[in-house]
From TrEMBL, chain A:
The lineage of its organism: Eukaryota, Metazoa, Ecdysozoa, Arthropoda, Hexapoda. This is Nuclear cap-binding protein subunit 1. Belongs to the NCBP1 family. It comes from Drosophila ananassae (Fruit fly). GO terms for molecular function: mRNA binding; RNA cap binding. Keywords: mRNA capping, mRNA processing, mRNA splicing, Nucleus, RNA-mediated gene silencing. Signal peptide: none annotated. It is found in: Nucleus. Component of the cap-binding complex (CBC), which binds cotranscriptionally to the 5'-cap of pre-mRNAs and is involved in various processes such as pre-mRNA splicing and RNA-mediated gene silencing (RNAi). The CBC complex is involved in miRNA-mediated RNA interference via its interaction with Ars2 and is required for primary microRNAs (miRNAs) processing. Also involved in innate immunity via the short interfering RNAs (siRNAs) processing machinery by restricting the viral RNA production. GO terms for cellular component: nuclear cap binding complex; nucleus. One of its GO terms (biological process) is regulatory ncRNA-mediated gene silencing.
Amino acid sequence: MGDRYRRTRDYSSTDDDMELMIRPTKRRRLLPSRVKMLDNETAVETFGRLMKALSIQNGCSMELKLEDLSYFYNDNLEDSKQAVLRILASCVIDHPAHASAYATFVGLLNIGNFQFGAECVHFMMHKLRTSMEDNQWKNSHGIMAFIVELFNCNVVTCNSLISLLTCFLSECVEVEEGDEVSDIVPQARRDWLAFCVLSTLPSVGKELQQKSASFQGLLLTLQIYVKKRIPLHAAMLGIWNGGSGCAQMDYLDLLWQQVERLRDQQWLEPEHQLLQRPYLAFDDTLSAALQHVLPPLKMPSHTQISAYPPARVVFRIFDFFTCPDGLQMPPVLSVERHLLEVQIQEILKVHHLERKLCSDHLCNYAKSKPLMPVHFCIVEVILGEMLQLPTSPWITLNYGSILVELSKRQPDKIPMAVMQGADIIYAQLESMSVACFDRLVNFFSHYLSNFGFNWHWGQWGKGCTGASALNSSQMFSSGDFQTKTVFLRELIKKCRRLSYHLNMTQVLPENMLHFLPPPPHPQFKYIDELVPGAKLSQLLLEAMRGRRAEPTEISTILTGSTDLHLLKINVMTQVCLHIGSKSFTHTFATLTRYQTVFKQLIHSESEQHAILKGVFELWAGNEQFKYVVVEKLIRMQIVEAKYVVTWIFAPQLRVELTKMYIWELLHATVRTVKHPSRLLPRKRSPETVKALEEMDDTEVAVKGILLEIIHRFVKVLAGSTEGPEGSNTHYWCQWVQGRMQEFLFVYSEDYKKMGTKLVKISEESDLRKGVIKTIQAFLAYTM
Amino acid sequence: MSTSVDLSSYRDQHFKGSRSEQERSLRDSTTLYVGNLSFYTTEEQIHELFSRCGDVRVIVMGLDKYKKTPCGFCFVEYYTRAEAEAAMRFVNGTRLDDRLIRVDWDAGFIEGRQYGRGKTGGQVRDEYRTDYDAGRGGYGKLLSQKIAPNTDNR
């Protein structure tokens, strides 16, 4: 075995190695472990901390850290083996990109303590199996990466590792059509198994190729599997639809190509030390170790309740990209690109909740790779996760706050990368999925608001011929619904919501001002005495404003009026909103004061639509008020959620469907059904809240409203002619269809349970083709 | 190690109850205090920013005790602790209206707390400030009285 590590020395001979050769004479210990024995509990806690630190780039030598850890273990922890193994497992699960460091630690212990090595191997194999049984697929991926690295550290034998990999791939072996296995085992499971094996190959491929004759067969199995599989989900989950300049690939296809290229280069060591191999520094020591045979894995089989990690499409904006500072992004098909992404993703996953810490770690990581444009890759990974379909792992603001923080820390690098990324996305907007439109607008408006809305607006405005800020009453001209026009319009409105009208007029250049709607003031039409209802409005205004009339008095005035019932509702609504128009608080106060009056007036659908019409008329120029006031009316139980849905899809709101706020409102409406405890009255105990939200009634109501929404989508789309490409009607149909897909994505857990109902809808006769395709693709993806 | 959702060192001196009761309410609270706002920042802007962390239950604007105009702070209440934590994490220390705003746990809004506690009606910090802050009425109240005693009677 001795020559193994000596040979692998040629992977890299780094400064670190040199440092190690010099150091022993004047070694500075990181720990006082030899000085003082710690009590058990403190020792375990310290060990946990040090193990976590192995995944952190902080300038300390990895070798020193590893040596210290093994001394620390021998001095303090021999009796706490189970605790140590548990900590080890949690580390390898959280930090799969650092599996080699953890494996080296075990390798070092295994030399003097064969028993520990044996226990570790058995513990991890057990953990691998149980995590798969429990559907903890991400965990088993981390453990698998660790076990493979154990081979690199001379802890496990080559043959037993090959057996394990073969066992993983056994379900991917080509099956004849109609064969039972392919019927029962879903592709998601086989994809995941293949992914687990494939992702370990960059670090272990070379050794296995040299040592095992069966490795070729394994690669062949993978190749055939990947080439033959049909990634049906790719079209649906891609952020870019066909025709975009940005290449995007199914994650498994891409990884295969990256590994295949690596194999064709005789497993050339990835550049820039993207693969950590801390064990190389200990090769003499490790080569003396005895190895263990991995016990055979009894693979848990697929069951009815198994759920697998969803397939992904890899997001790319910086293809064939040379960064402004002359650094070259690793080519898309290089394994370097994959490794870079994986390591950035891991930092994000572990630290995303603490934006400052996360930024520190990302900056340190970038610093450790000065010859690579890591900043660009960080921006690409963050934007990619934020826009990910069907949904992003965390809220948009989480990603935005990290990018803002990074921009503050590295003002010469990150803002430029964000700018380039945004420019590329903007150029490709036409082919971007509607389902991530809102996330992009929300992110970007927030990002700009943190930097004084400073942007090269003029340049963006140039290519955009689309006309004015749309009012629902206006006729719209061609180009109004063009994606870029819609995007700029919505972006500028969102910026204004975070800022104020006057500021936007100062920030925007002349050629962009037409995107800014008029100041968002209320429009009280009953000021005109000739409008029907004006007289009643005068009486109400005078009573409410002049003498703060009681609800009973208002009811009397309304009863005394000879106006039609629906007109009365409209007048009453507009008067209340007009009086409260100063702020949300003022509006809510007025509505609350006269809540009983509204409840007497309003029961049926048409009556509820009348109050909504009142809101939309008075606040025609202020989308945020429309959305917030209607949501409040639902919470006050003056209006029912189901009638807000029918209102939104009513013919008179056709143009409004091209705007973001209406979807904001629709989502908020669904949330009120999902969380009935949030309806007034105010305070409820946590127990009542839980009981309310877990009620069967709630589930039925949620299903009801979500199904109703799909029905409405189908109906509104069926009633529209699509028109030629480039026409407003074409854009409109594409957009609304994209919104339907967004709903399926956001509430996929609920829609999954309504599979048969969705199938039924998709089989209706007069459906638009795109609608059928969207529903069917969703069903194929989730079932 | 400290995290963004830990309690800060600030304690409201007007809290009715013991220090440990206060800390318990802070730990369970879904209400946030938001400070260092511009006097011109509106409830609508605050709603826009904070609703990106979750559904906002209520916003109470901080007002000058005498003039009843915004005086640079507010309370934001969410439905759940998780939503409030998101605001602590992702909004605290970021910009609104070009100002770095402060977000901190609050034990819960009680009527009367919406008013500034300074002698002149605004927040105490705006009385002792020595810098010029256009978003918060220029110089601190005490200083501006010294500088221009005759022009402050508008």
